[in-house]
Amino acid sequence: MNDKLLVNEVELIIDEDNEFIINDNDDNKPIDDVERKPTDKKHRLTHQQRSKASKQRRNRKRNKTHRMRRYQHYVTRPMYHKFTTPLVKKILQQHNIKYVHIKEVDGILVIGVKNDLIKQKYQKQLPEDLFDRTNYQIYQHHQPYHRQNHRYHPE
Predict the structure, then answer these.
(1) Is residue 18 part of a domain?
(2) Residue 22 has what pLDDT?
(3) Contact between residue 126 and residue 95 where contact means Cβ atoms under 8 Å apart
(4) Quick one: pLDDT at residue 112?
(5) Which residues of the chain have pLDDT under 70?
(6) Looking at the whole model, is its pTM more than 0.90?
(7) Is 72 exposed, middle or buried (0-12, 13-18, 19+ CB in 10 A)?
């Protein structure tokens, strides 16, 4: 009374004494008739993952490139410290200024634009005192009153 089990294409036979007998069916050899193509280095079957250090180097390089492009053409204006970024963006929109990026550095507003022609146009179009203290007070005074922000005032 022999029981047969097939595990990973290896036949295990258990005899009467409960001992394993391994039978490697050598009859079932792989077919060599199928031609195997050599792997082409240009076409990889699996995606290679970058190491953490490699990702950091790549990101640092890309960020530097983007930063250089972002501030390749820019217009600067002095800015009062109480101006907020949303308010600056709103003012630029009112003046039909299309910008790539804006930031404030030591009291100076840097407005990144796409090219040199636009830069020259905006240099003439934007007044130097657009973001000073008096204009800040004017813009704050003309801001619409928001009732939802003042809950304790009667309606």
Answers:
(1) no
(2) 53
(3) yes
(4) 92
(5) 1-47, 143-155
(6) no
(7) middle
Q: Residue 130: inside a domain, yes or no?
A: yes
Residue bearing tokens 């004494």: 17
Tell me if 11 is assigned to some domain: no
Does a structural domain hold residue 8? no
Residue 6 in tokens: 């097939």
Q: Which one, of 48, 54, 55, 110, lies nearest residue 78 by Cα?
A: 110
- Cα 3 to Cα 27, 151, 152: the distances in Å are 20, 84, 87
What is the total residue count of the chain?
155
What six digits make up the tokens of 59? 């990101």
Cα–Cα distance list, 134 to 27, 80, 82, 129, 144 (Å):
95, 9, 11, 9, 18
- What amino acid occupies position 145? Y
The Cβ of residue 102 has, within 10 Å, a number of other Cβ atoms equal to: 17
The domain that holds 98 is classified in CATH as 3.30.70
The total number of structural domains that make up the chain: 1
Residue 36, pLDDT score: 59
Contact of 76 with 122, CB cutoff 8 Å: no
| CA max distance for the chain | 104
Measured CA to CA in angstroms, residue 70 lies from 61, 107, 116 at distances of 14, 20, 13
* Domain range for 117: 73-143
Helix (H, G, I), strand (E, B), or coil: what is residue 73?
strand
